[in-house]
Amino acid sequence: MALTAETESRLYRSLRVAAGAAAHLVALGFPTAVAVLARPGSSLFSWHPLLMALAFSFLMTEALLIFSPEASVLRSFSRKVRVRAHWALQLLALLCALLGLGIITYNKHLNGKGHFVTWHGLTGLLAVLYAGGQCAGGVLLLYPKLMKNWTLAKLKLYHATSGLVGYLLGCASLMLGMCSLWFTTTVTGASWYLAMLCPLLTSLVIMNQVSNAYLYRKRSQH
């Protein structure tokens, strides 16, 4: 029996709601699991995985989901409130990422190890620098008059698209970190594959959200 357009729409919305709920759970659950594994405070290094997981798994995911009509925990609030919450979460994510980067850099210095000599290190550095640039670019949305030749709609679209790239970089850094010696000796078997699925799941949800926002904007222009 063929599904009606209304039934398909309801089914699609239900799937998006379920995916958003799963993303919230993963965004919180992954850093929690990392905290249990790393035991922050047991060593200087122990703060690095926790801070990076908080930055790119929890804070940044929640900052992007805030604008999701199905998954936002603030969907009943005004857009102005959601924008401010987005800014706060992104700045906290950047702060955690900078602290995590500083800690691992100093820890390598203390142990006489090379800096940014692995794919994880290089991707992590790029993700943190990109996050800083993305936050700076977000200022243009608060003061669009600084870009006189750009419409606010275009600025929002490019900010969302570039933000997706930065988020994917952060998730890639997390996944590469799970290939490190520290993680692979601590987490093995099915648990390792399950951990790898966490940033992959949130990436798919965020990509779907951004693509839907783009399609909605395209339709509204016609």
Automatic annotation (TrEMBL):
<protein>
    <recommendedName>
        <fullName>ascorbate ferrireductase (transmembrane)</fullName>
        <ecNumber>7.2.1.3</ecNumber>
    </recommendedName>
</protein>
<dbReference type="GO" id="GO:0140571">
    <property type="term" value="F:transmembrane ascorbate ferrireductase activity"/>
</dbReference>
<keyword id="KW-0813">Transport</keyword>
<keyword id="KW-0472">Membrane</keyword>
<keyword id="KW-1133">Transmembrane helix</keyword>
<keyword id="KW-0349">Heme</keyword>
<dbReference type="InterPro" id="IPR006593">
    <property type="entry name" value="Cyt_b561/ferric_Rdtase_TM"/>
</dbReference>
<dbReference type="GO" id="GO:0140575">
    <property type="term" value="F:transmembrane monodehydroascorbate reductase activity"/>
</dbReference>
<keyword id="KW-0408">Iron</keyword>
<dbReference type="InterPro" id="IPR045150">
    <property type="entry name" value="CYB561D1/2"/>
</dbReference>
<keyword id="KW-0812">Transmembrane</keyword>
<feature type="transmembrane region" description="Helical">
    <location>
        <begin position="17"/>
        <end position="38"/>
    </location>
</feature>
<feature type="transmembrane region" description="Helical">
    <location>
        <begin position="164"/>
        <end position="184"/>
    </location>
</feature>
<dbReference type="GO" id="GO:0046872">
    <property type="term" value="F:metal ion binding"/>
</dbReference>
<keyword id="KW-0249">Electron transport</keyword>
<feature type="transmembrane region" description="Helical">
    <location>
        <begin position="44"/>
        <end position="67"/>
    </location>
</feature>
<feature type="domain" description="Cytochrome b561">
    <location>
        <begin position="14"/>
        <end position="217"/>
    </location>
</feature>
<feature type="transmembrane region" description="Helical">
    <location>
        <begin position="190"/>
        <end position="210"/>
    </location>
</feature>
<dbReference type="GO" id="GO:0005783">
    <property type="term" value="C:endoplasmic reticulum"/>
</dbReference>
<feature type="transmembrane region" description="Helical">
    <location>
        <begin position="118"/>
        <end position="143"/>
    </location>
</feature>
<keyword id="KW-0479">Metal-binding</keyword>
<dbReference type="Pfam" id="PF03188">
    <property type="entry name" value="Cytochrom_B561"/>
</dbReference>
<feature type="transmembrane region" description="Helical">
    <location>
        <begin position="87"/>
        <end position="106"/>
    </location>
</feature>
<dbReference type="GO" id="GO:0016020">
    <property type="term" value="C:membrane"/>
</dbReference>
